Amino acid sequence: MNEETAPPAHVNKPRQEVTEMVLSAFLISDADVFTGPEWETGFGERPWSKLSVRAAEGMRGVISAATIPFQLEHDSVTQRHFNRFLMAERIRRLKDVEPGAGLKPEDEALASEIAQQCMDDFQSSEVGRNTIRNDIVNGLHRHMQSKNISFATRELLYQAQVSSWSIFENFCKSFIVTWLNEHPYVSKDVLSIKRFQKMIGGQSLNIDNISGFGFDLTKSMGDVIFSGVKLDGFEVLKDLCKVLLSDDRVQRAFGNDLYFLNKSRHLIVHRRAEVDLEFLNSTGKSYQIGDLMHIDSQDIERSFEAVREAILAIMFAAEVRVGSASTGPSAV
Q1: Is 292 helix (H, G, I), strand (E, B) or coil?
Q2: Cα–Cα distance for residue pair 259/242, rounded to 1 Å
Q3: Residue among 160, 133, 126, 167 nearest 12 (CA)
């Protein structure tokens, strides 16, 4: 690749404030950071192992959707640079072509091959990497000037926040039910707590529900207890995991970031992110009532990390509990 084919690095370098605006408005993340292999495959063949795999797949879907603007701009920029190399090579091929004639198929193929090599060299060079990076940042910043795209970008971040909590909530509910199905004797600990007695009531333990499982509760206690019960909310899930796992890491994972994720998800779903008194009182955020809650890409990444850490903490705690259990019910 000739050096003159690449613009000087300083020509398209975005201003610092432009970079900060783009990084705040657009999610630029790698799914592997938040769904590493230990999440997907590190828990063997336990009855709840597939739950973490399903959650990891869900997170990958959310990240893929939320990073669409970045992915599209990246593809556009790289294609633009490739086309520049390709056009230069196609023009060079014309020296052996009669005036007015087109390139032969073999010349087109050679031009494309050389252009791809030039593109590979460009992307592997510091100048090329910086040029592509700067072009992407500037392109995303231009998109921000459109009200429609700006609105859509904010909506993508809102929906990523909502989906992140949904993934965790669904994982947690499924884990709780599956855990009780596998360890039915632990149900007495759940039912001994007044909070859960009130939440569960007597309806889930009636004859009809039990008969639906052939009166065999050895592998269906979780399904029976929580049949028709709405298992949601930060505190409920935290308390249930505490009862079932008694693990400090799990309790730490239910920290401020996961708590805010739950509260912000509720605000987005039920009030279209319009701040109310309950949100202010529960989060301590500095908004005025009626403001739209602001979510940026750093908030989303913190949510992804909080969900990842909580799920991994639950899975590791489950492994510890099973590994330390004896054959008797009292060991769990």
Answers
A1: strand
A2: 16
A3: 133
pLDDT at residue 18 above 90?
yes
Please compute, for residue 191, the number of CA atoms within 13 A of its CA located in the half-sphere on the CB side.
15
Residue among 32, 240, 25, 48 nearest 141 (CA): 25
- The answer to whether residue 326 scores a pLDDT higher than 60 is no
- Cα–Cα dist 286/246, whole Å: 35
What is the DSSP secondary structure assignment for residue 47, as one 8-state letter? Answer: T
- Enter the DSSP assignment of 125: S
Q: Distance between CA 206 and CA 162 in Å, rounded?
A: 35
The number of CA neighbours under 13 Å toward the Cβ of 208 is: 5
Enumerate residues 6+ apart whose C-beta is below 8 A from 108: 90, 93
Q: Is the dihedral of CA 152, 155, 160, 166 positive or negative?
A: negative
Chain-centre distance for alpha carbon 118: 35
Taking the CA atoms of 248, 249, 251 and 252 in sequence, report the sign of the dihedral they define: positive
- Residue among 186, 161, 177 at smallest CA distance from 231: 177
Backbone angles phi, psi at 230, to 5 degrees: -85, 105
What pLDDT digit, counting tens, does each position of 283-325 carry?
999 999 999 999 999 999 999 999 999 999 999 999 888 876 5
Q: Which amino acid is it at 44?
A: G
Measure the CA angle with vertex 283, ends 279 and 284; round to 5°: 105
The pLDDT-based confidence of 205 (bands split at 50, 70, 90) is low
Cβ-based neighbours of 38, under 8 Å, separated by 6 or more: 312
Distance CA 281, CA 261 (A): 15
Alpha carbons within 13 A on the beta-carbon side of 276: 10
This prediction has a pTM of: 0.86
Would you call 274 helix, strand, or coil by DSSP? strand
Name the band, by pLDDT with cuts 50, 70 and 90, for residue 331: very low
301 within 8 A of 62, measured Cβ to Cβ: no
